[in-house]
């Protein structure tokens, strides 16, 4: 990669950046969550929450009159780690991440009970020298805390090392900048579908554009 030599380390988001899941799986989860909560979620609403298209998922749920705590409790209970892993695919252009010759970390909002089976199924565990699945304790992107924790695990804290974080959401860009890193926004869904344009130090639709 042409940017490989420009950075001492890389951090990456997972869902929507390196991998995605088949739509039928997403639709099924939202159908079951809707049954639990006594309401329906349209395809567009499911897409917005799954991809975080409008920023804070909790604020978006509240705007729809849905209690975030009740939603996420139902959501995580309806997710099947094995089925999700089997229905998850790696973006072809993301394979270059496995060739990076600098420390690489993963910072994802995907919960550990889902992340680990996905990494196992896709055989990409060894891509990452450190991993963190965000929780209420660690904080959520764009909070820089989870990013800085992974940087410390990699041994590249704020000590002059130049790093970059690549992700598909505005929260990834915000977390990168808040942690003093460059940001790559990987636009997988398209600006029109997202409803806005996300800025970044680099803006691409594929990692291939970074060659």
UniProtKB/TrEMBL annotation:
InterPro entries: HAD-like_hydrolase_sf, HAD-like_sf, HAD_sf. SUPFAM superfamilies: HAD-like. Gene3D superfamilies: HAD superfamily/HAD-like. GO terms for molecular function: phosphoglycolate phosphatase activity. GO terms for biological process: DNA repair. This is Haloacid dehalogenase. It comes from the Archaea.
């Amino acid at each position: 990669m042409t940017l490989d030599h420009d950075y001492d380390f890389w951090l990456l988001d997972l869902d929507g950046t390196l991998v995605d899941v088949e739509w039928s799986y997403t639709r099924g989860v939202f159908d079951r969550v809707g049954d639990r909560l006594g309401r329906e979620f349209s395809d567009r609403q499911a897409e917005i929450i799954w991809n975080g298209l409008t920023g804070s998922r909790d604020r978006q749920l509240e705007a729809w009159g849905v209690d975030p705590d009740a939603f996420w409790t139902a959501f995580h209970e309806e997710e099947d780690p094995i089925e999700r892993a089997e229905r998850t695919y790696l973006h072809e252009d993301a394979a270059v991440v496995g060739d990076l010759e600098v420390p690489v970390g993963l910072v994802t909002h995907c919960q550990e009970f889902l992340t680990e089976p996905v990494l196992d199924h896709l055989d990409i565990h060894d891509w990452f020298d450190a991993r963190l699945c965000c929780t209420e304790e660690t904080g959520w992107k764009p909070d820089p805390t989870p990013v800085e924790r992974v940087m410390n695990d990699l041994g590249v804290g704020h000590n002059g090392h130049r790093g970059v974080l690549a992700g598909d959401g505005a929260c990834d860009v915000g977390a990168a900048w808040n942690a003093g890193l460059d940001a790559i926004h990987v636009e997988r869904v398209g600006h029109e579908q997202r409803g806005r344009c996300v800025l970044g130090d680099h803006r691409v639709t594929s990692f291939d554009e970074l060659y």
